[in-house]
Amino acid sequence: MPFWKQFVVCVVVIAAGFAGWVYFVPGAGETLRKAGFSEVSKLAPSEASSQPAAGGEGQRRRGGGGANAPVLVATQAVVRGVVNDRLSAIGTGDAIRSVVVMPQASGTIREILIKSGDRITKGQVLAKLDSEEQVIARGQADVALKSAVEKSSLYHNIKSSVSRMDVFDAEIAEQGARLQLQAAELNLERRSIVAPIDGIVGIIPVNIGDNVSTTTPVATLDDRTEILVDYWVPERFANTITVGQPVEATSVARPGRVFSGVVEAIDNRIDAASRTMRVRARIDNASDELRAGMSFNVGMKFGGDRYPAVDPLSVQWDSQGAFVWQVVDGKSGKVRVSIVQRNPDYILVKADLKDGDAIVTEGLQRVREGGAVRVAGEVASNSEPVTQ
Q1: Rounded distance, CA 201 to CA 56, Å?
Q2: Which of 66, 111, 199, 210 is deepest in the core (most CB within 10 A)?
Q3: pLDDT at residue 191, rounded to an integer
Q4: Residue 380 falls inside a structural domain
Q5: What is the C-alpha separation between 188 and 199, in angstroms, rounded?
Q6: Is 99 inside a domain boundary?
Q7: How many independent structural domains does the chain possess?
Q8: Vertex 174, ends 171 and 177: CA angle to 5°?
């Protein structure tokens, strides 16, 4: 850029800066007049014109009345609230009765009379083992009993011809034969595997033809009309929980559903390692929605001490801590509070407050210690304007 163009640009920038200083900076006109530039000083705006007139519109904007005008506020009465202590714990569910069915004798499975998911009644036959040998043994015992009975009857009829010892031996032989028959019948009965409880059959782990022993699981039965949930609670609840106390449980398998129950049993000692105590709850499952082994989130509520409860909007803070504004005889006063518990609708506090005391909840920005206030909805006792 040529030198003359640079010079012109500098002059324009300086002139624009000078003009802005003259017009926008307060006192620029007076400075120019003192410097002898009286004509230029006339371009500066008058300072008096930029100030609002005394008692004019500016004061009216701030006004809202005199200094002693009452402040319009909204209040809410103090109520009594109970500290709700809630326990939440994770537990595992189990059927109220659960049995792993095993044979009472060894042998080969010949029949399986159930399938997974069947509802079984107590005494129903689940499976049968091979029983040919036991059938033969029962037949032999039956024949032996008949022979013993016949011999005993004969000796009784001819007591005069035989000794009393022979008659006694015949009676003993008859009783022994009866016991042998009972044993044979019991062995034959044990070849049938029966359900010891009412319940629902799980997955059957054996098949026809399997050789099983008295330690082989044949089926699992769960009576899940009620579910027992074991969970652990902190030591501080040891003297609070009682048998029969209500509980609520939720399960991941049934989101949104809350199942009600009661405390079934409480352990008699605290675990020294975890400082927790085992508790068992019983939950009704008549609808058969729950299963053994499910995880549950168990909740319990405990009623605690009663404290004044105030609206959350009423609690304010300053350098000394929390406080609320109390209205007494049309005057506002600061009351120090100590927060005990926060609830969705109220805050429980420890303070010198009684039920029914009026606490400011709206209009808090203008409330001052000892200041006059007017509660919204009340009729004003004078004609003074109210600050809003």
Answers
A1: 92
A2: 199
A3: 93
A4: no
A5: 25
A6: no
A7: 3
A8: 155
Model pLDDT, residue 266: 94
Residues whose CB is less than 8 angstroms from the CB of residue 46 and which lie 6 or more positions away in sequence, other chains included: none
Stretch 41-50: mean pLDDT, rounded?
A: 50
Q: How far is CA 233 from CA 142, 212, 252, 277, in A?
A: 62, 43, 20, 5
Taking only the tens place, the pLDDT of each residue in 156-188 is: 777 666 777 877 888 899 899 999 999 999 999
* Environment class of 179 (CB within 10 Å of its CB; exposed 0-12, middle 13-18, buried 19+): exposed
Cα-based distances in Å from 366 to 167, 245, 385: 118, 49, 15
Q: Tell me: do 30 and 77 sit in the same domain.
A: no
Close Cβ partners of 55 (under 8 Å, ≥ 6 residues apart): none
Q: What is the Cα–Cα distance from 218 to 128, expressed in whole angstroms?
A: 11
State the alpha helices, DSSP H only, in the chain. Answer: 3-24, 28-34, 38-41, 47-50, 57-63, 132-157, 164-189
Does residue 126 contact residue 221 with C-beta atoms inside 8 Å? no
Which CATH number covers residue 345? 2.40.420.20
26 vs 262, which has greater pLDDT?
Answer: 262
Residue 379 scores a pLDDT above 60 = no
Q: Is 186:209 a contact under the CB 8 Å cutoff?
A: no
Separation CA 196–CA 100 (nearest Å)? 10
Average pLDDT over residues 300-328: 88
Specify the range with the lowest mean pLDDT, choosing from 60-64, 163-167, 251-255: 60-64
| Contact residues for 346 (Cβ-Cβ < 8 A; gap 6+) | 79, 81, 309, 310, 311, 312
Averaged pLDDT for residues 63-77 = 73
Segments forming the whole domain that contains residue 316:
71-83+306-375
What is the pLDDT, as a whole number, of residue 48?
43
Sign of CA dihedral 360, 365, 366, 367: positive
At which of 190, 220, 239 does a domain end?
190
Note if the pTM is more than 0.70.
Answer: no
Distance (Å, whole) CA 179 – CA 109: 28
| pLDDT given for residue 378 in this prediction | 60
- In three-state secondary structure terms, 86 is strand
- What are the φ and ψ backbone dihedral angles of 202, each rounded to 5 degrees? -90, -165
Contacts of 341 (CB under 8 A, 6+ apart): 81, 83, 84, 307, 347, 348
Which is more confidently placed, 115 or 82? Answer: 115
